[in-house]
Amino acid sequence: MNTNMRIDWQCIDHVFLDMDGTLLDLHFDNYFWQQVLPQEYARMNGLTLESAVASLNPKFEAKQGQLDWYCVDYWSRELNIDVMNLKYGNAQKIALRPGVFELLDDIKNRAAEPALLTNAHRSVVNLKFDKTGLGRAIDKIHCSHDYGFPKEAPAFWGRFAGIVRFDPERTLFIDDNEAVLEAADQYGIKWLRSISEPDSQQPRSSRSRFLEIDQFPEIFS
Ligand SMILES: [Mg+2]
Questions:
Q1: Alpha carbon distance 144, 192 (integer Å)
Q2: SS3 of 42, please?
Q3: 120, 24 contact by CB (below 8 A)
Q4: HEC sequence for 81-140
Q5: How far away, in angstroms, is 42 Cα from ligand 1 center?
Q6: How many angstroms separate the alpha carbon of residue 22 from the centre of ligand 1?
Q7: Residue 1 has pLDDT above 90, yes or no
Q8: How far is residue 127's CA from residue 88's CA, in Å, rounded to a whole number?
């Protein structure tokens, strides 16, 4: 990891960008998993909201950091709820973080290539691209589901690098998830940045050991 405050853009070819909490406001996801889904689960199973949450929490905890956690098909089966349909019904909360289109233009203007690198399921990427127009500004999309591991698994990076060509020494990776950044650091990605406020409606639970971006233009100054 290079901890320099200033990114030397002469030394960057690839910029991998996380989606939820980095390009998009994590508020939608927190709202969906903490409120919408428990309410639906309670309604479907004739439970109070409290007992629905008590029943869901161990199921969520058991899958945290695994590919299933990010898989809408898994949760639809496991909970007997059409998770995608429920997301579509609440999609009005999907929102870009400030300055995303400018960020993508600025990266391209520095002769680097931006690409999405997400743990999200491709159907969720499609929904979020539809709602935000992000698909117009970013052509390369990498979903960890295609590589068999989530980004926080050390094994992901070897698999990913075996298929997608990039030089870790000349790559910037921005992600709001600490475990993901740790795995990228272990693999040898030189330029790593976190996000200071992934969810616009609540403070970060703990500070990152990586430099946090407050406003995207900071990475060009
Ligand atoms: Mg994220």
A1: 18
A2: helix
A3: no
A4: CCHHHHHHHCHHHCCECCCHHHHHHHHHHCCCEEEEEECCCHHHHHHHHHHHCHHHCCCE
A5: 27
A6: 6
A7: no
A8: 7
Exposed, middle or buried: residue 165 (CB in 10 Å: 0-12, 13-18, 19+)? exposed
Taking the centre of ligand 1 as the mean of its atom positions, its distance from the CA of residue 162, in whole angstroms, is 23
Q: Give me ligand 1 centre to Cα 47, in Å.
A: 31
HSE (side-chain half, CA atoms, 13 Å) at 176 = 21
- Provide the residue type at 74 as one letter: Y
Q: Where are the domains of the chain?
A: 9-26+96-220, 28-92
Centroid of ligand 1 to alpha carbon of 15 (angstroms): 15
Tell me how far the alpha carbon of residue 84 lies from the centroid of ligand 1, in angstroms.
19
Query: Which three-class secondary structure state does DSSP give residue 174?
Result: strand
Ligand 1 centroid – CA 35 distance (Å): 19
CATH of domain 9-26+96-220: 3.40.50.1000
Provide mean pLDDT across the span 118-133: 96
pLDDT tier at 216 (50, 70, 90 boundaries)?
A: very high
Q: How much is the pTM?
A: 0.95
